[in-house]
Structure formats: structure tokens, C-alpha cells
């Protein structure tokens, strides 16, 4: 892609010295997706047997078990800029595309923040913005993401999907949209250079409510990240900085669910190495509390479940190779062990993603991904293992234009 | 209006050579509408008799049978542009006004597409955009439409309103917003000049889901259009091209409804002639399957109905005369024979629309329309005929500004 | 703030001579709010006793009785401009933040209007825009408002929150979002200078439907305002006009509620004086019909109530003092006597607000407000008085950036 291995905390929270007061920007991601699953058979429990002959939900894209779809994965419009002296900058963006952010409302604000760059060593950002967590969350997706789908740890552990508990699990429902890695609050952050080394910190206090909205309890989330980079080459706001970086992050808060309040902890470490023509990145994430426990039953019409005291962990490693200025090859392995503390509910996701990208120019590219997907319920019952076995491979193609 | 009789496939799917990378644009249509109906009387069937003394829904604009209303008919904001060499262009637009598109969500994406102009004779457009159907659908409404309301064939046959079947018809409900003639998919298209002749083709494969969203089945829609124009005068992207054009189009797909899947076919032919000071256009549309069967009962509180295997056909002819650079006169006759295959349900719509427009400048105009409306249920029962008889004339005034 | 005491009717409805055809603008208000309430105790009636030990709703910000929250109070994006000769101008704006406007839909159009400046003494504005009511409603909030929250008379009497009556009051629900002082219709207006004096009038006819949408009845609202200003200094479109102004306004319409139609009357008078370093403003509002009667029971989970024939009145006085070009101090007293015509339901709100603002530059400021709040139910029963007694003080901080 056109950007990678940048200091995302700096790039997204501030503006370069030559920033304009008002810059309109945005991007479009038009996607085609196809899965290759077969209907599930052999289910024997009374509540699952009616689903024999149907596709599992993770192989489908819509109500009647479609296994192929065109989609406007993302369509975003934003304005960002800096006031006169770049001491103050702002960032406003909304999602008009079709994804988990716009699950409930067809258009949703993603970002609305103001940064005050007055205090030495302590820039202050207020509003809604990406919390300082994993690299995969922080990178500018349209510019920098090498894969069309997020890794399982990013999608299932770090993104948040709030669920309203019903009288029975079948009445559970999502509350609003996906967090998109964002929250409403304040963040103090800055970075420091020492020769080729660059040290960055960010500490945020936030509502802990994934959708836009006021806080529903008085326990605020606290999220922090530390990052050290050895910069081989390239300026701070450059799109092609070459570097070796390591980082660690941790976010903790409380969530009300049913009639109780539960701790939600997410933490991780990672490293990335970017020196042309290679890029390599790996991240590990550990999660405790408020674990997305999937759609149950795992067929169209199922409802979302939460393991309020569950645990999960996972990691990914990805590498990209620049063949020519226009062609890149991408390979990722990612795995997630969900509810490893609960034998019956434990699920292990393992995905190899092979991809290629054609860069028309710095603002447009075409991506193709093939995902070899595997899901296991190592200690689940026979039905659980049959459903897990059904997880099929998936092919995606995506056109991306940024403006 | 400021534009007419253009090559809309080309104008909307590509950008001229001098296009900027980011162009903000949009328009506002502020409307006043008044209908002149009398309450329905004489209904005798047990389910309709309670509606005696009430206005039929097609004479009203809101909950308490209002017969007059101000409205923000359309308020759209978009960004379009071309990357460096115009080999790639994009188009993003959202609706913020109040119409059938925003029936469920108050703001909705209408367009998000990217066009790749690399292959000779085969430009590729991907995303959400207008399907290649009738001229009335393709023309840029704020710039080019001569009438405030769509013809019946455009509104009822070509636009799509997806309905969720309830346990009883009274529980039917719309799913999302009106398609606005658009769908999510890919289109290959191009045009070719030979002397004064211009030939254009477009072939699209798309989800067949009117709202933004993933496909709900694996049957994709296929829609194509062929067009031949004799251009008297004016460049491709010109606003005032003079031409004689003929075109034919056809779109087919499947829709899930109740527990089955039904074919939805729409096809049409048309011709337009534009040579100052006259413009004349006529179109014929035939439809089979998934016919909008109106609101039933046809009073406030009724629910939408679908004839999944029904048929319909209709046409319109319109003419416009430019009196002075500021004044235009407009006349249209349009008719729709809905469910002509079902005696009891057949409805025939006939409307004469007389209009005048004042063009303040190329970007602002004031339109006034008077619609002489007639609805017949030729083989319907007495109650159906009484309700149909109630269809009243309507007056509309609209201020339009584009930017 | 950066602007105050301007001719808002002129500034918002027209454009200056040097206006561009398309100007992108907007603002972000990121807020932190904290209330200092104690749970209510001592309730004795059978329906209220279960709420003992809970915070009253006016001390909370979310579902689980949060008493502190970060929030994106407002995040708006708009486009405004004038066509070639400024004879026609337009204004389009949408709300992406989290407040009562976006209660139902997460994004909502606030303004979409076109002004025709052709007739001498009678400019015509059509679309959705602020009705000509009180100064606090008309002033551009991000530029000009000296306080973070509206006064009680603005929030409860002049803003409109439409309520759908349920079968029982517990099933009442809001219909769409808050009016944000706006409506859809047409307005004739203009202003006239005579030496230092300036006279302004505005007369609007509108739907009387707070959300975007068509009118639900045929009774249109009529709203008018007269204003006389003695301008010490500063041009019409200036941000820092110094003046002494007095104004009177009145708006009346009908609203359908339950099975009847009720008159909704709002009227007021006001005066403001602006001469550096002082600004003083006072307004009085009287209301009859369709009075917001609060959330009942006044705890999380309560539903909105309306007094369809109720009456209310109130006023505020506020003053601001410019200490330095960067610092301002603000003080306001505001009071509302709600349902003064109904002994049991009468509620008296009294709030002192002390505030300070730091202006980084004309486009960015930081505001801090402390509200000493008092609520009385002078003739209410013991439970009503206990709940009223619970109203606690509140602290707010807000970062504002306009662009």
C-alpha cells in the first residue's frame, strides 16, 4: 500500500507544519466476497438439528445464506486541518459504507477530535478517536492495511460489539455499531527523537462505550501504549518510513451486562520491521472479560453472545514483499484461542491469508485475498465440532481509492 | 433545466479530462406539495368501511391525512474526482433529505463507485451506482429532470422498494430505503464515436438489494443497456448537447419473498430528441415479478404489498419548450397498467403533468407542476373503484439549487 | 466567543458580497460533564418507592446512572455559498454528534435552505432552517454561545421534542429527534438601516414538525420576529458588532397528540447590549400548549410526557466580561416555571451558571461551566418534592473548534 510502518499516534493525532485549515478527504472500498462452504449436516441436538442442510453463519453474507456478495465495505468522508499555527488541529470523519459500524444506523460518525499541542511533551487530544491499542487497529486502513479483513484478534478481541442481554439468549441484540477501535475521551500523548530512535507514548481516559453516546456507567476506561522505533529513513509524516518498532499496550475498563458490571481487559505487544522490499509485523493480544462469544446458534437468525468473564488470546504474523513499484505480495497467519478457559466453549481460529495487490498509483489499488480458514472446537461436543468443521475458505477482491 | 439529453452513462461513470482530484458538490430541492382530494365515502366491505370519511393515502403526505406539506425533497452532498491522469475516477454521494431513500435511516449513502478506465472499449465501474436502465432514472435529477415527480413507471416499476412479508399482510413492512435506481456491483461500459453517431453500452452485475448492504442470495442481477445517438451538436460532457437518441435496456434478477425466490424482470425502450427550442422524450417499460402492489388498505396505516409474480407495463411521453433563456414549459403524459394480469388487482394510472420552470441561472431554478391524476380499477370491486376514483389532482412547487 | 450580538437572521439567511460558491464548514464540540447528585431516598408511593436508592434522571447521563461522561456534544459538517451574483445563496448542514437531535438517527440533517434575494425588502428563504424565535436559539452556537448548556426556557419551551402517546404513559416515546429550533417551510425577511439604527423582520410559515419529514396535518405554523438595533460599531457580517438590540417574537401552530389537535404557542421578548468589555442579554418566554412535562418517572427508564394544554414561562439574564483578548468570564441566571397552571405538576427550575472561557484563537476555545441547579415542586406531593430536591449541581468542560 501507499503507507506503512508509520507513527500512527502522531499522524492521526496531529497535522504536519504545512497542513491546511480545512482539508476534505475520504476513501471508498468496493469489495467482492465469496465463500466456499458446504451446508452443515449431521447435527443431532434438538435445538441444532433444524439447521441441518444450512450454511453456518461464518460462511454467509446475508439473510438467505448468500455465499457471495458485492459490498461497499467502507465509504468515508472527513475533514481535517490545523488552525493557523498548527498548535490546534482537528479530525472529523463519518462512515457511509456497510459494515459492523453501520449495523444499526446507516451512517455513523467515526472520529471527531481536537488536539491541543501546547504543553511540551504532553499533547492533548479530546473527542472520539482510535484508542492507543494494537498496530493493526491504529494503521490507516485504506492507505496501509495489507489485507482486506482484519485478523481474528483485531476483529474479535480489540474491536468491541456491545450486546444487550435479553430475557433469554435468543433475545440478545447488538447495541449500536462496532467500536471501530474508537472511543470518546481524552488522550495525552507525544513522541521524542534521540538520534535514529523515536519514543512515543499515549494515555487515554474514555467512556468505554463503543458507539457514539454518553457513558452508561462511572467507570472510565484507561488505555495506554508505549512504542520505540529505530527509524532507518523517512520523515515523521512520510508515507514510506523505514523502521524497526516495538510496542506494548493495555486497555482496561468496566462494562455493564445483565445485572452486573464486568472488567474488560485487552493488552498486547507487537513488533514491526519495514525495510524495502520487506515488511514484517507480528502482534500478540490477550483479553479477559466481555469476550465476543459468537453468534448462537451459528446460523442466520442466531443472536450475539458474550462471555462476561471469559478469556482469549491470539497472535498473527504477516509479511509483505514489494515486487515492483506496482506489485506487492502479502502473506499472513493469524490465530485466536477464544474462551480457552472454558472447555465446552473454547474455539480456535487459524487462518492463512495469501494476497496480492496492484497499486495503480499512491491513491488507488486493487487487492485480492484468499483465506484458508480453519475453526476448531477442541473440547466441544459433536455438534459444536461439526459446525466448526464447516468453516470454509473465502476469496475477496477489493478496489480502494483514497482522496 | 441546465442539462438534458446527455450521455448519462458516460457523464456519471467517468470524469472529463480537466477534472480535479476532489470536487465537493451537491444540491438542495425544497418542495411544497398540495393535493386536492376529498375523503372517500361509500365503502361497504367490513375491512374498508371504517375508512369512510378519510383521505386515501395517495392524496396525503403524513400521519393525520395532511394534504399539504413543505419538504426537503432532496439534500445531497457528494465528492467526485479523478486521480492524476483521469485513468481512475470516483463518485461518492449521500442523501440527507426526506424521501423514500431515507424512509428508515435519516441519512443514506446513494453512490460510492470507482471507475477504472484502462481497458480499451471496456471501462470498469465498481461500487454502488445507478444501474443502466431507463433515461428518466439515469438523468441527473437536479440538473436535468423537467418534472418534480417521477413518472409512474419510473417510481413504481424501476425503483425498488423491498418488502418484508409479515405473518399477515398487515404486518408487511419496508426493508430499508428505496433503491433510487441504484445497486451494488460492477459494470463494464464504454462509448464509441463514428462521425456524428455515438454508440454506448453498459452491462452490470449486481447484488439486487435496493438498500446499502450485502447480498441476501446468490442470484446476482444482470442489467444491460444499449444506446445509439446522433449528435447534432455539443461535446460529450456538455450540458446542452443536441441529439436524437434511442436506447433499449433490460435488468433481471431474483428476489426472496416469503419462503420463495421470484424472478424480477424490468425492461424498456425509449427515444429522445433534443434540438432547441424543443425536447421530446418517450419511454416504455415492461415489468414481470415483484410488482409493488401499493399500500393496502390505501389509507394512512396501511402496509406495503407485493405481487411476486405480477406483471405491469406503462409509458410516458414528455415535451419541453424553451420560451426564453429563463423560461421553459413542460408537458408530460404518463400511464401505468399495474397487475394487468390480475383482474381484481389491476390498476391503471394516468397522469397529465403541466409544468413551468424559471431558470435564475444554470445552478438555480424554480419549478411549478400541476398533475391531473386519474386512477382506475377497471375490473375491481365497488370499493376498489371508489378508492381509485378518489385520486385527486396535485400541485407542486420546487426550488432547486446545485453547487 | 468569537462572535456575538450579530444580526443572526441576516447572517444565517444570506451571504456577504464576497461569498464563495461552495464553502465547506463545520465544528466539533467535545464535552466532559459531571453531576454531583445523591441517590433519591424516602419515596413512599407504590410506583416510585422502587426507585429509592437511584439517581434521578436529571443527574445522570446514561443507562446505569452514570454521573460523568465524555461526549461529542456536536459534530457538524456543512456547505454554504452564493451563486454568481449573491442573489441566491444556500445553506446545508448535518449533525453527526450525540445529542437530542440524533436521539433516533445517528446522523441528521439540520439545515437545507435556499434564499432568493430578488424582491426589495422581501428576501425569501425556503427549506429547513432556524425559525425566527429567541436570540439564544438564533445565535450560532459554536461561535457565539457563552454557555455550554441552553437555558431552561430555550431547552424546554422553544426546542421541540415530539412525543407519540402510547396506550399508557409508560408507552410514550419520542418521535424522531429534537427540532434544534428548526422547521421546514418558507420565510420572508429583510433588514433596513437608518443611520445607526437597523430594523429586521422575519415571518415564516412552516410544517410544525420538529424532525425532517412531511407535515402530518394541514395546520401550518406561523412564526414572526421583529428586531431593532442601535449599532455602535461594526459591519453587518462582522463577528464583533457592538450594539443595543431589542426584539419580540411569536410562533403558533397545532400539534396532533393522542386523538386531538392542540395549539402550540411560544412567544418572547428580549434585549441585548454589547459594548466591550461587557455583554448583557435577557430574554423572557411564554408558552401555552404542548409543554414538555418531563420524563416520568424521573429515573432511567422513564418515558416522556406532554401537557397538551399546559402553560409555562421563564426568563434568563446573562452577562459576559472580556478580561483579556483570550479570557472571558460568564454568569447566567435562568428560571422556568413549568405548568404554573397545574398545582400538582408545577415545577420551578432555577439555575446559576458560572463560566470561564479561554480563546486560543477566533476558531478555538475551551469553556468551563459550573451550574448551581435548583428544582422545586412548590405544590407537589411529598414524593415529587423529594425528587425535585435531588437536582444536583453540574460541571461541564468543552473544547470547541470551528472550521
Could you characterize the architecture of this molecule?
The structure is a homotrimer of 403-residue chains. The first copy, chain A, is mainly beta. Helix content of chain A is 7%, strand content 53%. Chain A contains 5 helices and 20 strands. The longest helix of chain A is centred in the last third of the chain and has 8 residues. Chain A starts with 7 loop residues before the first helix and ends with a strand. The model of chain A has no long low-confidence stretch (mean pLDDT 95). Chains A and B meet through strand 1 and strand 2 of A and strand 3, strand 4, strand 5 and strand 8 of B.
Which fold name is given in CATH as the topology of chain A? Porin
Provide the low-confidence segments of chain A as ranges: none
Largest sheet of chain A: 16 strands, antiparallel, barrel
| Overall outline of chain A | globular
* Total of domains of chain A: 1
Task: Name the pair of protein chains with the most residues at their interface, and give those residue counts.
Answer: A-B, 35 and 43 residues
Mean pLDDT, all residues of chain A: 95
The strand order across the widest sheet of chain A is: 1-2-3-4-5-8-9-10-11-12-13-16-17-18-19-20
Share in β-strands of chain A: over 45%
Question: How many DSSP E strands of chain A?
Answer: 20
Which assembly state applies to the chains in this document? homotrimer
Distance between the first and last residues' Cα of chain A: 14 Å
CATH H level, superfamily name of chain A: Porin
Order of helices and strands of chain A: HEEEEEHHHEEEEEEEEEEEEEEHE
Count of runs of 4 or more consecutive helical residues of chain A: 5
The computed structural class of chain A is mainly beta
Helix content of chain A: under 10%
CATH class of chain A: Mainly Beta
- How big is the Rg of chain A? 21 Å
CATH architectural label of chain A: Beta Barrel
Amino acid at each position: 500500500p501507499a503507507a506503512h510502518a508509520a507513527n500512527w499516534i502522531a499522524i492521526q493525532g496531529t497535522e504536519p507544519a504545512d497542513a491546511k485549515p480545512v482539508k476534505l478527504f475520504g476513501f471508498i472500498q468496493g469489495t467482492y466476497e465469496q465463500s466456499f462452504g458446504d451446508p452443515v449436516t449431521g447435527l443431532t441436538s434438538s435445538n441444532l438439528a433444524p439447521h441441518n442442510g444450512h450454511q453456518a453463519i461464518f460462511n454467509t453474507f446475508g439473510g438467505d445464506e448468500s455465499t457471495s456478495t458485492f459490498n461497499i465495505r467502507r465509504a468515508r468522508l472527513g475533514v481535517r486541518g490545523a488552525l493557523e499555527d498548527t498548535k490546534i488541529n482537528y479530525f472529523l470523519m463519518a462512515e457511509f459504507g456497510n459494515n459492523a459500524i453501520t449495523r444499526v444506523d446507516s451512517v455513523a460518525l467515526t472520529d471527531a477530535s481536537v488536539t491541543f499541542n501546547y504543553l511540551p511533551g504532553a499533547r492533548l487530544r479530546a473527542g472520539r478517536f482510535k484508542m492507543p491499542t494494537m498496530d493493526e487497529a491504529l494503521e490507516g486502513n485504506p492507505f496501509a492495511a495489507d489485507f482486506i479483513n482484519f485478523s481474528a484478534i483485531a476483529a474479535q478481541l480489540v474491536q468491541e460489539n456491545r450486546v444487550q442481554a435479553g430475557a433469554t439468549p435468543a433475545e440478545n441484540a447488538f447495541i449500536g455499531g462496532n467500536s471501530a477501535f474508537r472511543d470518546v475521551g481524552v488522550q495525552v500523548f507525544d513522541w521524542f527523537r534521540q538520534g535514529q530512535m523515536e519514543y512515543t507514548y499515549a494515555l487515554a481516559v474514555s467512556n468505554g462505550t463503543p458507539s457514539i453516546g454518553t457513558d452508561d456507567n462511572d467507570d472510565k476506561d484507561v488505555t495506554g501504549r508505549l512504542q520505540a522505533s529505530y527509524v532507518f529513513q523517512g520523515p515523521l509524516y512520510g508515507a514510506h518510513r523505514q523502521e524497526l518498532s516495538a510496542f506494548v499496550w493495555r486497555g482496561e475498563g468496566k462494562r455493564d451486562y445483565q445485572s452486573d458490571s464486568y472488567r474488560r481487559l485487552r493488552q498486547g505487544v507487537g513488533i514491526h520491521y519495514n525495510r524495502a522490499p520487506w515488511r514484517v509485523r507480528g502482534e500478540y493480544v490477550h483479553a479477559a472479560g466481555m469476550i465476543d462469544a459468537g453468534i448462537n446458534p451459528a446460523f442466520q437468525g442466531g443472536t450475539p453472545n458474550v462471555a462476561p468473564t471469559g478469556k482469549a488470546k491470539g497472535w498473527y504474523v504477516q509479511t509483505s514483499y514489494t515486487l515492483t513499484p506496482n506489485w506487492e505480495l502479502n502473506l499472513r497467519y493469524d490465530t485466536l484461542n477464544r474462551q480457552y478457559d472454558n472447555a465446552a466453549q473454547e474455539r480456535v481460529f487459524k487462518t492463512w491469508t495469501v494476497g496480492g495487490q496492484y497499486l495503480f498509483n499512491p491513491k488507488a489499488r486493487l487487492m485480492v485475498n484468499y483465506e484458508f480458514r480453519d475453526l476448531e472446537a477442541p473440547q466441544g461436543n459433536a455438534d459444536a465440532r461439526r459446525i466448526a468443521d464447516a468453516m470454509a475458505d473465502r476469496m475477496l477482491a477489493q478496489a480502494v481509492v483514497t482522496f
